[in-house]
Amino acid sequence: MRFPLITAALLLMTATILSAQVASHQSTILGPERLMQSSPAVVSDKAVAKVNGAVLTDRDLLREMYTIFPYAKQHSGFPKGMEKDIRQGALQMIIFEELVYQEAQRKKMAIPPEQINRAVRAFRKQQFDNNQEYQQYLRAECKGSEQVLRGKIRRSLLIEALLKAEVGQKSLVTPAAAKAYYDKNPQQFQRRESIHIQTISIIPPQSAKDSVQKEARQRAEDALKQAKAAKNYREFGLLAEKLSDDDWHVNMGDRKPQDAGALPPPIVEAARKMKVGDVSDLFTFGANYTLFRLQAYTPAGTISFQETKKQLRTDLQKTRASQLQSGLNQRLQKNAKVEIL
To answer: CATH 1.10.4030.10: which residues of the chain?
Structure first.
């Protein structure tokens, strides 16, 4: 939902950008070619769009781009493969916010002076260590005027107020509504059987000689004895890091919860009969040996309403808020004059 972020973004402004509380971790999963950075952005207050005559500048655009991808500042630019999409998304958002602001003005919505005063005080307290820094910010961003700053904050609060009325309040989902959705869509609340295990695997080289196979078997049996003596997750995990040859040994042997269908049937059958914390016997898969500790077992079945109620209400509200915001945007754009420059 957008509206809680608008004032927060304003209150987190620095001398050069509007920071945001929206985090993106896409840079950690993209390929190297998409992690290449563009050159640091330079603003000149050039107009990038007009909304019913109101001018939006490249400064406004850059601030929103940082809102979408805040890591760009510390990395001195946006990933080249993403910059175009980030720019387009930011442009659409600043146009939407301007339309919302104009609608709030048309409706003659007002923000009490004391609310603006509190926002100004919070901004100064959170962002500046001393008055000198604050004055530097005013010169760089507000033409040296506190009234300009108050105008920015008032604008943000008006946007938030209108979105709260048109989106936030209307998207609220009552427990009764969530229960009705739950009852109407039982197929969405079926839980598949899942198993969470830690493993220790002894994997001899392919085409190993009999002596090597025999040594691997002895290693596996020794590992089993030590694993049976392990008292908890950590002790078993340290053994896995020390003894296991599989790829999960670097993560304390933890395979994380996974669908039972993705595991070998013998392991699934054993897990169904074990208690959490139990260590299995030794399994042989080809020339490899594996044992596991059961961390959690979840049988297939129906998720109860009590289990899912909180998350379901949150999900339904997010979906409803997105629909309402999209509808509001379409309604405001219908009779607006929007020029992309």
So the answer is: 3-174+316-340
C-alpha span between 66 and 329 (Å, rounded): 22
> What is the spatial distance between Cα 190 and Cα 303, in angstroms, rounded to a whole number?
6
Please state which architecture CATH assigns to domain 193-299.
Roll (3.10)
Element (H, E) at 134: helix 131-141
Sequence-distant (6+) residues with CB within 8 A of 149 are 120, 123, 138, 141, 142
Inter-residue long-range contacts of 59-63, CB under 8 Å, 24+ positions, other chains counted: 60/94, 61/87, 61/90, 61/91, 61/94, 62/17, 62/90, 63/9, 63/13, 63/17, 63/18
| pTM score of the predicted model | 0.63
Residue among 110, 134, 112 at smallest CA distance from 123: 134
Which is the CATH superfamily of the domain at 3-174+316-340?
A: Porin chaperone SurA, peptide-binding domain (1.10.4030.10)
The tens digit of pLDDT for each residue in 36-90 reads 455 556 777 899 999 999 999 888 898 888 888 888 777 678 888 888 898 999 9
Q: pLDDT of 193-244, one tens digit each?
A: 999 999 999 998 877 678 888 899 999 999 999 999 999 999 999 999 999 9
**Ranges of CATH 3.10.50.40 domains, the chain:** 193-299
Q: Report the candidate in 271, 298, 23, 215 with the shortest Cα–Cα distance to residue 281.
A: 271
